[in-house]
Amino acid sequence: MFDLIIRNANLPDGRSRVDIGILGDKIAEVAAAIEATAPEEIDATGRLVSPPFVDPHFHMDATLSLGLPRLNRSGTLLEGIALWGELRPTLTREALVERALRYCDLAVTQGLLHIRSHVDTSDPRLVTVEALLEVRDKVAPYIDLQLVAFPQDGYFRSPGAVDALNRALDMGVDVVGGIPHFERTMSDGASSVEALCRIAAERGLPVDMHCDETDDPMSRHIETLAKETIRFGLQGRIAGSHLTSMHSMDNYYVSKLIPLMAEAEINVIPNPLINIMLQGRHDTYPKRRGLTRVRELMEAGLNVSFGHDCVMDPWYSMGSGDMLEVGHMAIHLAQMAGIEDRKKIFDALTVNSAKTMEIEGYGLDRGCNADLIILQARDPLEALRLKPNRLAVIRRGKVIAGTPARVTELRIDGRPQVVDGSYYAPVLPTDGV
Ligand SMILES: [Zn+2]
C-alpha cells in the first residue's frame, strides 16, 4: 500500500510521533500510527520532518565566483556590482553551468530543493540566461529552479536592457525582475516599475524586483510597486526583494505604506545575511541594521519569506546554502526570539517561500509531493538554534541525500561518553509535555 513509511516524525506544526506514508512520488497518508508496512521504512525517532527549504532569492549566475577577477575591497554593494560588471564579459556558458551545478549539490545536502534565482540580463549575449536555462533542465529531477530576468545595470539606465530582458523572457525565463533604485533618477525608477509590471501583466508572469535595497528613506519604489500591482490586477504575484529602505523610513509614512502593501498582497523577501553585511555602510555610529520591518509586515498579514541571496560571490564571501543560517540571522536582526516568533521565522524559510514562488504540491498534507527532510533536531526552534545535519533529504519519495547525525565522543571521566547537542535543550512548558 506504501513504498516508504517515515515513522515517529515530529512535524513543524507541533504534531509529534506521526507516521507519513508515501506512495510513488506523493504523500499518501499522515497519521498517528500507520498499521501497514512498506518495503522501506525510516524511523525518524522523534526528529523534525519538514517539507524542504525554499530559497526565494538567489543569484546562481554569480555563485562560487568569489575572487574572480578580484576580491571586493570595500565590501560594498556598489563595488560588488562594479566587480560583477568586470567579470561578466569573461563569463562562459560552461563555467556558469559548472558553478551552478556545484551550488545545487550543496543545496541538496542542506535540504534546499526549491530555488528562485535572478539571472543578470545586462550582457546582450545572454550567456547567463542560456546557462541557467540549461541548469534548470539538468537539476529538474532534484531541484525546482525558477529564473528571474534581472536587469542588474538598470532597465532604463543600461543601453539594450529593455530588449535583452524581453529576449530572456522569450527564451523561457519565468519571472520579471527589476532594480528601480539603481535607475538614474527616482522618476526613472518609478517608470521602470510601471513598464515591468505591464510586461508581467501582458505575459501572465509574476514579478520579483530588487526594490529599495538602500538606506535612503526616500527610496519609495515599493509604494509604486504596490500601486502598479493593484492597477494591473497582479495581487499576490508580485515580490519586493530586500526593501531595506523601509528600515530607515519615517514611521508615519510606513503606517500608510504597509496597509497599501497588504492591499496589493506583496510578497516580501528580505535577505538578512546580505542586508546586515551591505547596508549601513555610510553610517558611522550608530550603524543601521538595514533589515526591513519583518515583524510589522508579518503582523499586517503580509507574506514574508527570506532569501539567501548570495554565496561566495562579488557581494558576499560567506554563505553555505543553508537556509537555517538565514533564519538564524533573521531571528537576531528582527529581534524575533519568542517561541511564536521563531515558528514564524521557520515558516518564512518553508511554507511562506513556497507561496511566494507559487509552488504546487508543497507541504505535508495527503496528496502533496513526497519532498521531505529529516533534521537532527526535535522541532523548528531547535533547528533554527543548531542548524543541524539533514539526516535524510527525500525528493518525490526517494532518498537523494543524507548526512549522519553529528555526535561527539567525550573523553572526560564521570561525564557522558557521547554528546548529541540536539538533546540538550530544556523542555519548555509550552511544548505540552
Ligand atoms: Zn539579490
UniProtKB/TrEMBL annotation:
Coiled coil: none annotated. It comes from the Bacteria. InterPro entries: Amidohydro_3 (IPR013108), Metal-dep_hydrolase_composite (IPR011059), Metal_Hydrolase (IPR032466), Metallo-hydrolase_Enzymes (IPR052349). Keywords: Hydrolase, Metal-binding, Plasmid. Residues 40-400 form the Amidohydrolase domain. One of its GO terms (biological process) is cytosine catabolic process. This is Cytosine deaminase.
